[in-house]
Amino acid sequence: MERLTIQQHSEYRRHCAWMERAIALAHEAGQAGDVPVGALVVNAAGNLIATGENRRERDRDPTAHAEVLALRAAGQILNRWDLSDCTLYVTLEPCPMCAGAIVLARIQRLVYGANDPKAGMIRSVGNVPDSPASNHRLEVLPGILESACRDQLQQWFQQRRSTATC
C-alpha cells in the first residue's frame, strides 16, 4: 500500500474542501428542484473565482448546467475565455456538452466526484478530453468525495420518485 506524502495529503485535503463547497451548491440546486450538481472554479493561487449549480428547471435553459454556468461566470470575472490556469470542481462527471465546454475553456484541471455511467464524457462513457478532436489536454482527478456526491444524487432521485408515486 502506497503512502501519501505530506504534500499529496495536503493537496487531497484541499480538493476535498473545494468539493465540499461544490456539494453545498448541489444541495441548493436540489432544494430548488434542479438535479443536485454543483461546480466551482478556482484559480492557480487557490482563490475561488466562480460558482455554478444546475439551473435548467429554474431558468428553463437546457444549457444551464453547473459547469457551464461556473465557466461563464469565471470568464466574465477574469475578463477572458481562456481558463488555462484554473481548476474546475464538479460533483458529477461532466456530460458531453460540459466536457466540450471544459476543453474549449482550456481548464487546467478537472476534479469531479461521482462517475456518471449514463452520460459521463470524461471517463465513464466517452473521453472528450483525450479525443483526437480535442485541442487541449487537461489533468483529471476523479472520485474526490465520490460517495458523498453519489449519495446526494441517489437520495434526490429517490425522493423525487417516492413523491411522484404518492
Short recap of the structure:
With 166 residues, the chain is α/β, with parallel strands linked by helices.
What does this structure look like?
It is built from five helices and five strands. It is globular. The protein has a five-stranded mixed β-sheet. Helix 1 packs parallel to helix 5 (146-164). The longest helix has 26 residues, at 6-31. By secondary structure, the protein is α/β, with parallel strands linked by helices.
> What assembly state would you assign to the polypeptide chains in this entry?
single chain
- Which range does the strand content fall in? 15-25%
How helical, in percent, are the residues? 40-55%
Largest sheet: 5 strands, mixed
Helix tally?
A: 5
Order of helices and strands: HEEHHEHEEH
Radius of gyration: 16 Å
Features:
alpha/beta; 5 helices; about 170 residues; about 45% helix; globular; 5-stranded mixed β-sheet
Write the layout of secondary structure elements.
Blueprint: H1 6-31, E1 38-43, E2 48-53, H2 56-59, H3 66-78, E3 86-92, H4 96-104, E4 109-114, E5 139-141, H5 146-164
Helix pairs in contact: 1-5
